[in-house]
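Our working data are protein records whose layout never changes between entries. Instead of coordinates, the fold is spelled out as a row of discrete tokens. Here is such a record, shown just as it appears in the course material:
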Amino acid sequence: MPKFSLRPIITAFMFLTRIPMPELKDFQPQDSGRALAYFPVVGLVIGLLMLLIAQLIAMSPLVLAALLLTFWVFITGGLHIDGLADSADGWLGGTRDKERSLEIMKDPVCGSAAVMAVGCLLIIKFAALTSLLEQAQLSALLLAPIIGRCVPLILFLSTPYVRKDGLAQHFISYSSKPAIYAVLLTVLLLCFVILSLPTALIVLSSCALILLGLRYLMMDRLQGNTGDTTGAAVEIIEATVLIALCIS
């Protein structure tokens, strides 16, 4: 029986959050690969912390939504928002050219498309959070980060990775497919446990359709995905979960 190690879990939290973690000595690329299956666990912890904040702070839904969204952004260090910004610039400025799009996405300077995309997404998340808090649908705080962090697992399994020297290459090369499938199945079951059957079907089908659309755009423009497009997809799917729960 393989020996259980905390290294992949620590690696997942170090990569996806700003939560202080023990220092890893002799870091290996294999640590990144094994960490991939724990991404939804990171989402679970973020969701639980958001639930705790919502339970402890007695404020109007409007103010609480603003606080939760701020916490949501800062606990991740804006990692996925940065991917959304870079992807938006690449899509607007790349003019359907793969190499030009990839070049723009590597540029650390944000253009107008990045500002518009991030601004619109944060407004959507804020409005949806306010509506859900008014309806006391606190399950959204738990499910959105978890489902969002299933996106890298799905994309890395199903979509070619464009940048062979990119940071995410280690996640792909050393990941365990059986572990990833087990985690995705667990999250799927969790949705049906927490939500009613009609609501779960609405949320999951909405996320599936949006992710398929995003993957189509990635394949059409880049013939694959990158860390930036994966981060953008995480943000968009999190917003999709919130919106689906608002209308269900």
Summary: The radius of gyration is 18 Å. The chain has one domain: 32-247. Residues 32-247 form one domain. The longest helix spans residues 197-222.
